[in-house]
Design goal:
Blueprint (H helix, E strand, L loop, with lengths): L2 H21 L8 E6 L7 H12 L19 E6 L4 H10 L4 E5 H9 L13 E17 L14 E3 L6 H12 L8 E3 L3 H9 L5 E6 L4 H9 L2 E3 L4 H10 L4 E5 L10 E13 L4 H11 L2 H10 L21 H9 L5
Parallel strand pairs: 1-2, 1-3, 5-6, 5-7
Antiparallel strand pairs: 3-10, 4-7, 4-8, 4-10, 9-10
Length: 338
């Protein structure tokens, strides 16, 4: 989905609420707000978050679903909020700054268990899952002519690893380590994909990492305007990553996903929607039910290429943390859980 259109929908929803409240109609129906922490506006989390926010929202005064209106949770106003990504979203959920958010399955697991990047930190024991969403592909994007054919070629190069608080930064470090490279061996920068793309286009950057569903808007635009190369993450180093970190899986970016880029082997993690035990069971039940209704299915199929990969049949695959009781109730009702 076009980011501008997504933002317009979110703003329009907010205006609709203001009008309804001004008319006094909202008094007849309890109103709840449900924020979804996403990622940078040039990535995949943000447009997907806009789609899901639209699907589960049903502002006070809206027409009911059976009258052609919203099929979301009655009285709910959901918004997609741009953020630094997985770690930042989990931290916001833990502090109460967000009701929910998207995260990579590896980051969720580390936060819940106090391992990995959360080693020595407080466990986020209240973290709970709503659904597994889709595979997130690790992209290593290189400037044409930079001579980068493998992550091993990044030594001495100017490389963006994404911002602190992002899952991309964590996974970039894992990839670098598998190829025998540390941040001391490169000239690291810590930029979101849109800023990294601008610098790569200007010749001020040689490569950048991005973890997200393909096609990613920032990379598509860059491939069209300046041309890029995707670097494979494959071979024995990739095999070792898969052996050491069970939440990774083999993945392939099909030819033509980005202009003039052929088929590329890489690895991926899962994108998951998480929340907190602090959020009421009834609300999470309603959100989960609204996520998987027929109206939401149409929105996801039409709204983004990765929306088609968000399927109820895979909603419980590879969850990094336990289900929220409200979500668990729904999945039991539809027979996905006993």
């Amino acid at each position: 989905m076009n980011v501008t259109k997504t933002l317009k929908r979110i703003v329009a929803a907010g205006l609709a609420v203001a009008v309804v409240a001004g008319a006094g109609v909202a008094a007849a129906q309890q109103m709840a707000f449900f924020r979804i922490g996403t990622g940078g506006t040039a990535g995949t989390y943000f447009p997907i978050g806009g789609l899901l926010a639209n699907a589960i929202s049903n502002p006070p005064g809206s027409r009911p679903c059976d009258q052609g209106g919203s099929c979301g949770v009655p009285g709910l106003i959901a918004t997609a909020v741009a953020s630094n990504g997985s770690v930042a979203n989990i931290n916001a959920i833990a502090s109460g700054g967000m009701e929910s958010g998207f995260t990579q399955s590896d980051v969720a697991y580390w936060a819940y268990t106090g391992t990995g990047v959360y080693e020595g930190k407080d466990k986020v024991e209240g973290l709970r899952s709503i659904a597994n969403l889709y595979p997130e592909t690790i992209h290593l994007v290189a400037r044409k002519g930079a001579g980068i054919k493998s992550p091993a070629d990044l030594k001495g190069k100017r490389v963006s690893l994404d911002e602190p608080g992002s899952g991309t930064l964590i996974d970039a470090r894992i990839v670098l380590g598998a190829y025998g490279i540390s941040e001391k061996d490169i000239k690291p920068e810590y930029l979101k994909p849109n800023a990294a793309g601008d610098r790569l286009r200007d010749g001020a950057l040689d490569a950048f990492f991005f973890v997200g569903g393909y096609p990613a808007g920032a990379i598509s635009e860059l491939a069209t305007s300046a041309g890029v190369e995707l670097v494979p993450i494959a071979g024995p180093e990739s095999t070792k990553i898969l052996a050491d970190y069970k939440f990774f899986a083999k993945d392939t970016v099909p030819a033509g996903t980005y202009k003039d880029v052929g088929t590329i082997e890489t690895i991926s993690v899962n994108a998951q929607w998480v929340t907190s035990t602090k959020i009421a069971d009834d609300l999470v039940y309603g959100v989960t039910k609204a996520l998987w209704n027929d109206n939401s299915r149409k929105l996801m199929d039409a709204g983004h290429a990765k929306g088609k990969a968000i399927r109820k049949e895979t909603a419980l695959d590879g969850l990094g943390v336990p289900l929220h009781p409200g979500a668990e109730k729904f999945y039991k009702e539809v027979g996905l859980l006993k």
